[in-house]
Amino acid sequence: MAQPGNPWLAPIYLPGSEPYPPGTTEEEKEGYRQMQRWTKVGGDFMHYCPTKVAMAGGMGFALGGFVSLMGATFALDDPLSRANQQLTTGGKTMAVVKDMGRNMLSQGRGFAKVGALYSGYECVIEGYRAKNDHWNGIAGGFCAGATLARKSGPWGCLLGGLGFAAFSAVIDLYMRKVPTEEP
């Protein structure tokens, strides 16, 4: 339904009264309405803080495991560590696989903790401020850095928070910069 009296305005339709293409059956219309409902639910689901924290933790765990796996591939043929010379090839392989798995789990948990803390703090601050800008990431980075350094005392918390906030600011400002247009 177009705005009466002004053909230049875009038409505004109430939800559920949008026009359908000619020849659309009632079954197709119901399918379209159901698709719109699920699209809205799925889009809203991604904006909840628990969802963001779980995704950041899961992706951090996967990234930490991958980084550990890559590091382990470069450390396998260390000529200075010849401690287990008496093991068979199968025994050496099992020892290497167990060590890699242990390191992947440890590194993955560390990355998951960092990602979940940062994402959680940033999401809570964004919800409190009701703004989406770089200050949320900086404040979230400070809180996450201070939390991760909590066992090293007040100065450690301050320096950890400042370091994480500075790193977060650099990354966030880089990600939010306007791309240059090249002809």
From TrEMBL:
Domain of life: Eukaryota
GO-annotated biological processes: protein insertion into mitochondrial inner membrane
Topology of the protein relative to the lipid bilayer: Multi-pass membrane protein
Location relative to the cell: Mitochondrion inner membrane
Keywords, ordered alphabetically: Membrane, Mitochondrion, Mitochondrion inner membrane, Protein transport, Translocation, Transmembrane, Transmembrane helix, Transport
Region (Disordered): 12-32
A GO cellular-component term linked to this record: TIM22 mitochondrial import inner membrane insertion complex
GO molecular-function term, one example from the UniProt record: mitochondrion targeting sequence binding
Transmembrane segments: 53-76, 155-175
Annotated function: Essential core component of the TIM22 complex, a complex that mediates the import and insertion of multi-pass transmembrane proteins into the mitochondrial inner membrane. In the TIM22 complex, it constitutes the voltage-activated and signal-gated channel. Forms a twin-pore translocase that uses the membrane potential as external driving force in 2 voltage-dependent steps.
Subunit structure: Component of the TIM22 complex.
Family, similarity comment: Belongs to the Tim17/Tim22/Tim23 family.
Protein name per UniProt: Mitochondrial import inner membrane translocase subunit TIM22
